[in-house]
């Protein structure tokens, strides 16, 4: 597989939001480049394309049971701005609490689910639209590709497969956000 992270066109998330049909309906891998670091996330040493820093790599359809596609993962989950369906939204909400506001814990079908408030999700979407650019490639085995790419690029906003020194800090920030939501509902 050619290294799409270095050669594929970059699309600002606001453009992807306006034209979700550009997203493939296949499994694959994507990268998020940031024009501004979210909160305390480090960008030193990140792979850059111009002034944009590669900080996150993700997959769509890595779990065969869910049969996810790039269009569903990027176009619905991530662009929605809600931490319940998007790891990157949870990460950004943890790094940008002044933008996202507090997490809300709701019980759905007997299970606790974390949500971003509608107002917080709207502010988070706006931040993402202004600061994130995406590229992607279809891949029938996205999990293997993601693992190799995260290890190779050492993206600071990935936790799984990450060797980046920021991963433990990010994990703690995400856990603290969930704990604060639990405390609000207690």
What can you tell me about this protein's structure?
The chain has 186 residues and is of the alpha+beta class. The chain has one domain. It is built from 8 helices and 7 strands. The protein has helices spanning 4-7, 13-18, 70-78, 87-95, 97-100, 118-131, 142-153, 167-185; strands spanning 11-12, 28-34, 48-49, 52-60, 103-108, 111-116, 132-138. The protein has a 5-stranded antiparallel β-sheet. It has a two-stranded antiparallel ribbon with strand order 5-6. A hairpin with a 2-residue loop joins β5 and β6 (111-116). α4 (87-95) crosses α8. The model has no long low-confidence stretch (mean pLDDT 88).
Key features of this structure:
two-stranded antiparallel sheet, single chain, 5-stranded antiparallel β-sheet, alpha+beta, 186 residues
Outline the secondary-structure elements:
Elements: H1 4-7, E1 11-12, H2 13-18, E2 28-34, E3 48-49, E4 52-60, H3 70-78, H4 87-95, H5 97-100, E5 103-108, E6 111-116, H6 118-131, E7 132-138, H7 142-153, H8 167-185
Antiparallel strand pairs: 1-7, 2-4, 2-7, 3-4, 5-6
Helix pairs in contact: 4-8
